[in-house]
Amino acid sequence: MENIIYTLQDFMVHTKNITYLIMGGILIFMPLFWIFLTDREKD
Amino acid sequence: MGAQMTQPANRKLTPFNVITGMIIVAGIIFTVLRFTKGIGAVTNLDNNTPWGIWIGFDLLCGVALAAGGYTTSAACYIFGLKQYHSAVRPAILTAFLGYALVVFALHYDVGRPWRLPYPIFISQGTSSLLFEVGLCVFLYLTVLFIEFTPAAFEWLGFKKIRSVVVKLTLLLTIFGVVLSTLHQSSLGALFMIAPSKLHPLWYSGYLPVYFFISSMFAGMSMVIFEGTLAHRWLHDKMDETHLKEASGVALGFAKAASFIMMGYLAIKLIGISIDDNWQYLVTGWGAWFLFELLGFVAAPAILFAMGAREKNLTMVRWAAGWTVLGIILNRLNISIIAFNYHLPSADRYFPSLMEIGTSVFIVTIGVVVYRFVTTRMPILHEHPDYKEH
């Protein structure tokens, strides 16, 4: 029952929590993808 | 003598000419019907769906796929990546024709060509997104026309006026980027007026950002795709520089498109998360959304990345065609397929054969004009008198 969202504040906290975690993942993934794209250029 | 007389006639009856001729004749008939009998006589549009494929395909896809003009000229003249110089003129020509045909196609939808100057010069609706789009398209079409003119002036031998226009290149490029940023995003913003009509998976406060970011890789993919077709069909019109630089352009744009596509996927994910739309992903519409996102963005992005890494041009060219299809699917999803998703199937819109025929007619005009220009003007080769530019 504690998962029920009653207020806009609850909703924003819930969605922003998940979004910030996703953004953290993106910040790690994008540089790694850039390395994947460019690492053969040095050869 | 008889054989000599028949030779030119045979050369005119090529499969390309016969097919395009038939499409153009059919298109002229549809045009006469549209402008004499009204929009209801040729389309399946109704009060639920006033915008059909003439907007969803001709306008939204046309503008997105013409983005190669601003991406290529920005890469070459603003970022100084001169190795892409040979791709600028074909990209500018495609963008100019794309935007010109968008305006041409809009006449079929609006139906009153003599009122075209009204929104700009007579009755400005300054609080409307459509006014902003109209103004930007009007200005950007003018910019693209001026950017295209040096090729025409070289062809016609107008050296003085050509040298004046060439000096404006950087200024025109900056205008082009600014105007494209504005109207590419505004086309997405148009759909923010209908939150109850567009499915929540496609509706987002970030729609303008999605449209702008996707236009970048749409334009790059179109440059690669069009370069592939030019290589196949207009090989004899390309000079050594263009042939030598073509693979570098394809590989460089593949790398850029791949990275931008991954960024696009990331912001789409953020959009789902911020609106808390996760529950829709397990529905039928969710499957269709994932099909678009994974099948037509993630998959070609990975193919682009592998092609750029392995320097595999075939892979890159397939990925470019795939991405172009993905952009068309995305624009059709937003404007038609996921629009009015709540209506019963009997009330849903499906384009009539004459609507589809008119769109094919308009694309065919673009192909014919592109072929006419590239076979005559220095687009895929440098004019011998102007080698220094």
Describe the structure.
The complex is a heterodimer of chains A (43) and B (389). Chain A has one helix at residues 8-38. Chain A is an all-alpha fold. Chain A starts with 7 loop residues before the first helix and ends in a 5-residue tail after the last helix. Chain B is mainly alpha-helical and 389 residues long. Helices cover 74% and strands 0% of the residues of chain B. Chain B is built from 15 helices and no strands. Chain B has helices at 2-12, 15-37, 39-42, 53-65, 68-78, 85-110, 118-122, 129-156, 159-167, 169-189, 207-233, 240-274, 284-310, 313-337, 353-376. In chain B, helix 5 packs antiparallel against helix 6 (85-110). The longest helix of chain B is centred in the middle third of the chain and has 35 residues, at 240-274.
Question: In summary, what is this structure?
Answer:
The complex is a heterodimer of chains A (43) and B (389). Chain A is mainly alpha-helical.
| Greatest contact between two chains | A-B, 17 and 16 residues
Question: Based on DSSP secondary structure assignment, what is the total number of beta strands of chain A?
Answer: 0
- Tell me, briefly, the overall form of chain A: rod-shaped
Question: What is the arithmetic mean of pLDDT of chain A?
Answer: 89
Structural class of chain B: mainly alpha
Enumerate the spans of chain B where pLDDT stays under 50 for 5 or more consecutive residues: 1-7
How would you sum up the major sheet of chain A?
Answer: none
Distance between the termini of chain A: 58 Å
Q: Considering DSSP H and I runs of 4 or more, what fraction of the residues of chain B is helical?
A: over 70%
Structural class from helices and strands of chain A?
A: mainly alpha
Output the radius of gyration of chain A: 18 Å
Largest sheet geometry of chain B? none
Oligomer: heterodimer
**Can you count the beta strands of chain B?**
0
Helix-strand sequence of chain B: HHHHHHHHHHHHHHH
